Every structure is written in structure tokens, then in C-alpha cells.
Amino acid sequence: MIGREFSWSAVLPPVLTVVVALVAWEVIVRAMDVQTWLLPPPSMIFGELVDSFSLLSKHAGTTLTEMVVGFAVSVALGVTLAAGIASFRTFERSLYPLIIASQTIPIFTLAPLLIIWVGTDIMSKIIVIVLFTFFPIVISVVTGLRQVENEMVDMFRTLGANQRQILIKLMIPTALPNVFAGMKVAAVISVIGAVIGEWVGASSGLGYLMKLSGPQFLTARVFAAIVFLSVMAMGFFAVVALTERYVLRNHPSSQRSKGMLGEL
Amino acid sequence: MSELRKATTESPAVLALAGIGFGYGRDQVLSDVSLQVSRGEFVTVLGPSGCGKSSLLKLIAGVVEPSEGQLSLRHTTAGKRLGNISLMQQRDLLLDWRTVAENAGLGLELSGIDSSEIPVHVKRIAEAFGLEDVLQRYPWELSGGMRQRVALMRTLLIDSELVLLDEPFGALDAITRSKLQLWLLDVVDQQDKTFLMVSHDIDEALLMSDRIVVMAPNPGRVIEEVVVPVIPKKSHQALLEPEVLNLKRRILSLLANQEQVA
Fold first, then answer.
1. Within a domain: A30
2. pTM confidence score
3. Contact B58 A154 (CB under 8 A)
4. Rounded Cα–Cα distance for residues A141 and A96 (Å)
5. How far is CA B33 from CA B47, B91, B155, B159, B223, in A?
6. Is A200 a domain residue?
7. A-chain residue closest to B54, CA distance
């Protein structure tokens, strides 16, 4: 399979771009003598990553827990809602427009309300993450379930299948590639939800650490936290993408195209 | 036709339709369709596109219900048709994420038989279908003709007396189609089943069937039934026999007259 072959030609260009950008950043900051509280050079950020690794890791643990729990709740809720929308016309008419409309509300503005209602513990962050991530999941799962052709359903029925068998052996496998597409998007944006939740009110987490470090002009630490968050989001994406590759190993979609991970 | 099949042509009806009507909303698709299929027979419903042939099969299989008329079956109550009548549709409808063996055994799996027994049943008939070497392959690795044979294997593996074929080779190229027609004749001879096929191909109907039911469109209705003369060794060559050619001429003129009326 093409996707499993490691290809330097695919990896080299983005890596080189990052290296060039970092070198340019370092040179410009030093040459122009920019204050480190304004914009620290990459070397200083790297130093901060090493020096404060245990502090960053501790806060990253909180954020990661929120991301994983929020993501899991979001997947469960999103798939259930999507199944309802795809199966029942009344469900679709009464819920689908509201779900779409809900995305026009800036979720950031809801965070303070959630702090008032459920407090500053993990629950408020999980709700923010779910609000951010359930939408891409619902949309992609509904799309996936709608790909099931009527002729296929008829074929299952003539073979004597009941509703449960049609769901498990036809609908879910057909929709799986879309379920994973939604989950990959959700995995990446779960980090945004976690940071926003922590920003508004928390006692630990990388968002909390950044909010604390900013006013103290610990700019290198803010950057170090951003690096941590970015790595966490990429790692979470990779875990979902690898799970997808394993689960869909027999799916033609994974055989015919390289998939997103194959591009890396 | 084998002796077995000829002998059973006079047997009681496996399927009997009387005055069947069917429509979607205001559109009348079928009107007053009556026909009988006896045990062991191979009957083809022949007609132009849009004469409701596929709807007729879906209706017999139980996917949809007739709006009028009587439908009776020998061993099955009309209300329990789903799962007891095999239907092969024009498209193979194979599940891309399942192997050939898993696709072929789908009906058995859905019927709830012990999962360890399914491969045994599949292997038993795989050779006759020329699929014994590709059982662990995936559908997207197969040619159109092979996919169609997997679909037919799935159809025939379920325990049903009546098999409905909806233009089973309609999506294939002419050469593959004629090969598969002869092959299907062999398979049919080995099966103790009753076949009802729909087709718009006169040669296919003459080659495969004991009897041809000719339909006309708008709304779909039966205009004539013709018995195909018994040809000792069925082949495409046999279609050039004078007796068969005369029958073909008659069917062509029946269909042409209908077009003029329309």
C-alpha cells in the first residue's frame, strides 16, 4: 500500500519550510534586538520547553484529559444525533436546522455562562469541547448514513435482514469513512475548546497557564505552551487517523487513496 | 433442459399472481398482471424498459406490496416473502469491505446460522461458480462478470424455492454476457429451484427460458405468453434454428405492435 511507504519527498518540503522560518525568526529577532518579552527567539522558546517541561507536562495532562473526555462524549452524542436525524424525518425536521443554527453562536461567549452554571471544574471544559466538536461529527455521520443506497437496503431485506442487522451490517460500515473524517476534524479542534474553557475559568491546564503567563510577560512560556498544544492536537489526530487505518483496512477507500496520514 | 427440469414443468404453481396492480402515487406501474410459475420452471418476463418488470420482481420478493390483486406462493404465506424468495438485482450490490466469501455468505449470516458453517456452504458451491480461487479477495479486485457471479452465489445460497433475477447480466459487455448465460444454464440445471427472470433481451429470454411472458408498458401489463420449444442442447447456435427464429419474429412483432399502439 502506497500510504505505508515512508517518502522523503513528501516529508522534506514542509520540514525545510519550518526550519527556514525558524532560522529567519532567530536571525531577525537577534539582528533587530527585539525585546524577548515581545518576541522571544526560537532558541529561547526551546530553552523554556526544556526548563519548564515538568510544569508544562502537568498542565498538559489536565488539558489532554479534557480533550479526550470531551471528544469521547462528542462522538457518542454526535453519532446518536446523526443516527436519529438520518432515520427519522421528524427528528431531522425538528433538530437539524437547530443544530446548524447553534453553530452561529460564538461558543466563546457561552463559556462564561457555563462557568456560572457548572463551575470551574472539568465539566465546563468538557461542555465547551462538545459544543465545538459535535457539529463536524453530526454533519459527517449524517452524510455517511445518507450514502446508503435504497437498493442495498432492499437487497438486505430480501435476504431476510431485520432493522438491527441492516444498521450493523450495512449502515454503520457504509458510514464509517465519514465517521472517521468527522472524528479527525473533532480531534484537532478539541484543543481549541479545551483552551477556551480554561481561559474563562480554571485552576490548571495549558490555557490557564498561558492566561497566567501573559500578564507576567513570560512570553517564551506562552509560546512553549502553544508548541505543547500543537503537538497534542497533531498527536490526537494521528491516533484517530491510525485507528481509522486499522478499522478501515479492508475498506476500498483506504486501499484506493493514500488517506490523510499517507500525505505525511 | 435436464429431465428433472422438464418433468417438473407440469407441477403445481410455486407462484401465482392474479390481477396484480401497483403504482407510485398517481402513476400506475402495473395493471392487472396475472401469471403462474410452476415448480422447476424457468420463466422470463420480457418487455421494453419502463414496463414495470423490476417493480414486478420487487413486489413478488416482498420489498413493496401490490395495491390490488392476489399473490400466492406454494410454501410461503404472502406476508412472509422477505427472506424466503431470492432476488438478484441488476447491479451486483456487493459490500466493498467484505471478501467474496463474506459477500456470498451474507444471506446465510443474516438468517442466523452458525457462523462457522457459512464458509462450508460457500466453499461447497464456489467451484461451480468459478470463484474458488478468489474467495478471500475483495469485490473491487474482481471483473464485472466475476462480481455478478458472486451476487448470484449470494442469491442462490439462501434456502428458497423461488429465485428472481432482474436483468442479471444487463450491466455486462456482450461477450461476458453470452458466456455467463450459458454458465447460468448449467447452474440452473443443477439447482432444484424455480426461476423467474426479467429481461429486455429477446435472445437471452429464448436461450434461458421454458416460457416467456411478454409485457407492454404504460401501464405494465401482460400481452402474451409463449412457450419456448425444447432445444436439446441450448447454445447461442440453437437460437438460429428455424423454430426459434419464428418465435423470435413473433415476439418482435408483438413488441413492435405495442410501440405503435403507444
1. no
2. 0.80
3. yes
4. 13
5. 13, 25, 25, 27, 9
6. yes
7. A151
